[in-house]
Amino acid sequence: MNPRKPYVRPISKTSWFMTQSRYKVYMLHEISSLFVAIYSAILIIGLVRLGEGEAAWQGWLDAVTSPIGVIFHLIAFVFALIHTTSWFKAVPQAMRIQRGEEIVPGKLIVGAHYGVLAAVSLFVLILAGVA
Amino acid sequence: MSERTIELEVLRYRPEQDQEPFFQTYKVPCEEEWVVLDALNYVKEEMDRTLSYRWSCHMFVCGSCGMMIDGEPKLACKAFLKDYPTGKIRVEPLSNFPIERDLVVVLDDFVEKLESVKPYIIPKEERTVEQGEYLQTPAQLKAFKQYTLCINCLCCYAVCPQYGLDESFVGPAALALAHRYNMDSRDLGRAARDDVVAAAEGIWHCSFVGACSQVCPKDVDPAGAIQQAKFAHGIDYLTSFLPGGKR
Amino acid sequence: MQVIEADVIIVGAGGAGLRTAIAVAEADPKLSIALLSKVYPMRSHTCAAEGGAAGVIKSNDNLEYHFHDTVSGGDWLTDQDAVDLFVNEIPKELLRMEHWGCPWSRETSGNVAVRPFGGMKIMRTWFAADKTGFHMLHTLFQTSIKYPSVKRFDEYYTVDLLTDDGACYGCTAIEMRTGQMRQFRGKAIVICSGGAGKIFPFTTNGAVKTGDGMAMAYRAGVPLKDMEFVQYHPTGLPGSGILLTEACRGEGGYLLNKDGYRYLQDYGLGPETPTPVLKAMELGPRDQLSQAFWHEQKKGRTIPTKWGDVVHLDLRHLGEKKIDERLPLIRELSAKYVDSDPVTTLVPVRPVVHYMMGGIHTDIHAATPLNGLYAAGECACVSINGANRLGSNSLGELLVFGARAGRGAAEYAKKGLTAPSERLDALAADSEARVKAWFQRTQATDRVPDLKKRLTTAMEDGCGIYRDEATIKAACDIIVDVRERFKNVALEDKSSVYNTDLYQTLEMDAMIEVAQTVAVSALERRESRGAHQRLDHVKRDDEAFLKHSMAHYNPNGEPRIDYLDVVITKSKPAERVYGARAGGQSAA
After folding, report:
1. What percent of chain C has pLDDT over 70?
2. Does 1.20.1300.10 match the CATH number of domain A16-79?
3. ipTM score here?
């Protein structure tokens, strides 16, 4: 007779991510993409409205500058920041650059990403006439 | 001689008499310099002969003593008591694996996965001993060396939620090992490994939680290896649309 | 009892066992192979070997040099025909490892790099940073997966050999997760079960190294050869006994006493030089370095600590870059275990039991006197190590003689010799009864952990770096007493699934056998040679003892010792020369 009886510990399919803080951080990162997606969708709708004429465009502008619109954009901005920083942090793992016998330090790769982000942001702000 | 007494809470499970696991607490007189494994050995020798766990080298290289220590997967020989100032330490078998008994888990699934990724050189060109060694520069060695350091302790599987939720996932250590051979300048076996590696249960099952790399006691970075493999496959896919590309 | 049949059975899946399995599979893919091990292959203690594997490959080197280094390093107790083929076959074996993917450290040209090692006249030690054994083990394990004829039985504890009329036909082994015994029948059996460092209290060896295979062969009537030669490695971490590789000194590390003085120059190993010279100072042989420590201790020039006296290993002048590239594990282990980062701090070290030169008697084909039984690796004694093994010869040994054992066993298996199955069933039933007896005993007057402490302490006290008649006799007496008391232990754990109380008890059984052969062989060898140093017989005595000790099992008492001539072909016994006179190459 086989005396084995391996015990499988149950894992919750719906709340597993609450068991460790690193899983929560991961879920936060995953959720942040939702807000980035909604923000992008709003932006695309804006473009469509722009093509439909001035009234449509003004309606869209009114919607995004309404209190609800502003609150959403503030929240979306925070999530966009979370999304960006968490991705940038992970980049050196996915993008391993070797120069000769040396691996390019992760900090350099992350730094370069922030540099490009800053440059593009500045360019857009200048384009928008803010800066 | 003893300098400190700790409370070791150990998850016990004896399949022949227990319906489910339970915690048993041992008060262990410890030396300052000890690791958790030393405390377990004390229990085994002086307090309870029925406690079962795996261990051997006591120097972070055989990979036997991976277990959950205060909820984190660690090598018991690398978990120093001085890092647990409260004096209460909870020890459990590695998560995500069936418990065979006490701290011993069933490893069959992992071993099958390791074997499935063809973890051996599939050479570019057969070479005889008389022809001498393959030339491999230090830079070429560096390209895969990190991924050779895995000791199969399985801390990465214990912390991977994807593996915990769906054990069909090939998992971090096995995929990192496949990447190790794919990156070796002596090897041309990537296509042969792709049956398993590039399948849905392979690299694409990984959602880059990254926990595996955080807990790896040898800094192998399996998460990095998997993302790099995905990247390489992405490039392959895109270039397949170019003229002359293989689809 | 379930019967499992295979053409070749291999007991032990460390470096030697895996190499054997591959050799059998390559010799004839039709032969079925059962590879048994009490641990998963990657847990085997080969993984703890750090420094490297010696093999002649560079143009400034030649096989004769390696031959002479090995023979004189072993104080002429080596069999020279074995050493000859050993140095000849190693480079090919190491190249095979390269072809199988072993991540050897490289020169900028892409060729394999070599590093200096103790007792070697030329730099010839291939290495993979300071995890050479680990990489070799994983390379062999992963390569073995390629051969479908290799069927592994992971976590099977082998208990007894099945022998009949001067030949071996299999073994019994317990499947550890069910506790059920299986009968393995084979046409050839190879033991690759490793050494027995655990018969000492302070050792670099892992928990698995309890001499099981040695004891099994011994009980089956195969003599254990040269068991008194136990290697102390000069640099172990105090407390844990963790090994700090000889490569620390190969790369240029110093050994300092409490005055910061490189004391080895006082023991015929000088003069001191700032950069390493092969065969001199810190690159002398392990036996002499460990003995020098003992003398420093007697002179009061060591440093007392809670974990015993130590000297210091100084790596600071190597610099962080070199330490990280060549000795990363050493840095990690020192920092974690003794809180000393070698980049900035002196590391405390002391001699620690590391390796058994002796083992199961085999010929140069790895065959034992028992037909059908082979042995390779640390459990075996061919003998290429004689009275003192040179660092980086053991990884080579497990490849060369693992491969030879595999080829020999494959050839032998084709003869297809078997014993009557009723006979094997009866032997297996005896074996099972022997194990069951542990479960049935209820009244225990002694406990295994206590007896183990008593045994290992006796070994350290009686069979340490220096020995004499009185201390060895005292150890012998304690072993006899422990053996007697061991009959009165009972299992506290009577369960079937992964019962480690049972396996530790079976290991203790093996340790008693092996310890007794060490002590009695040491008592009978009334001379000093290599790692066997007698305070009451301080000179080497070639007249009486240029011979291998052969310990034969005696069911009624202590082992019977007789002697076997050493094979000498071209190197007549002479003085071992180290230091300036040895003419070693500069390793700067």
Report:
1. 100
2. yes
3. 0.97
- DSSP string across B27-83: EEEE-TT-BHHHHHHHIIIII-TT-------SSSSS-TTEEEETTEEEETTS-BGGG
Sequence-ordered list of residues with C-beta below 8 angstroms from that of B116, at least 6 positions apart, any chain: B170, B174, B196
Q: What does the pLDDT look like over C102-127, one tens digit per residue?
A: 999 999 999 999 999 999 999 999 99
DSSP letter, residue B247 = -
Q: Is B16 on the interface with A (CB under 8 A)?
A: yes
Q: What is the pLDDT of residues A9-61, one digit of tens each?
A: 999 999 999 999 999 999 999 999 999 999 999 999 999 999 999 999 999 99
Neighbours of chain B (3+ CB pairs under 8 A): A, C
Q: How far apart are CA C52 and CA C40, in angstroms?
A: 23
C235's CB contacts (< 8 A; 6+ apart) are C243, C244, C245, C246, C248, C249, C255, C313, C349, C350, C351, C352
Residues of C in contact with A4 (CB under 8 A): 177-178, 497
Contact, C444 vs C475, CB < 8 A? Answer: no
Q: If you write DSSP's letter for every residue of C503-552 in order, what string do you get?
A: HHHHHHHHHHHHHHHHHHHHHH--S-BTTBEETTB-S--HHHHSEEEEEE
- Asked whether the beta carbons of B134 and C99 are under 8 A apart, the reply is yes
Question: What pLDDT, on a 0 to 100 scale, did the predictor assign at position B244?
Answer: 74
Tell me what pLDDT residue C15 has.
98
pLDDT interval class at B211 (50, 70, 90): very high
Burial of C215 (0-12, 13-18, 19+ CB in 10 A): buried
CA distance to partner chain C, nearest, from residue B137 (Å): 4
**AA letter at C517:** T
Question: Which of A5, A12, A13 to substitute to test the interface with B, most B CBs within 10 Å?
Answer: A5
In this structure, whether the domain defined by C234-352 belongs to CATH 3.50.50.60 is answered with no
Q: Measured between CB atoms, which of B16, B209, B221 is closest to A26?
A: B209
Residue ranges of chain A that CATH labels 1.20.1300.10 = 16-79
Tell me the CA distances in angstroms from B42 to B27, B38, C429, one per residue in order: 10, 6, 35
Radius of gyration of chain A (CA): 22
The number of C-beta contacts closer than 8 angstroms across A and B is: 75
Token look-up 């000088």 returns: C270
Chain A residues with CB inside 8 Å of C109's CB?
none
Task: For residue C5, list its beta bridge partners.
Answer: C185
Cis peptide before A86 (omega within 30 of 0): no
Cβ-based neighbour number of residue C41 at 10 Å: 27
Tally: H helices and E strands in chain B: 9, 7
Class of the B5-105 domain?
Answer: alpha beta
**Taking the domain C2-231+354-422, which CATH number applies?**
3.50.50.60
Q: Is C552 exposed, middle or buried (0-12, 13-18, 19+ CB in 10 A)?
A: middle
- What is the Cα–Cα distance from C196 to C205, expressed in whole angstroms? 8
pLDDT digits (tens, 9 = 90+) for A52-84: 999 999 999 999 999 999 999 999 999 999 999
- Rounded to an integer, what distance in angstroms lies between the CA atom of residue B152 and that of residue B63? 6
Where along chain B do the CATH 3.10.20.30 domains lie?
5-105
Neighbours of C449 (CB within 10 A): 17
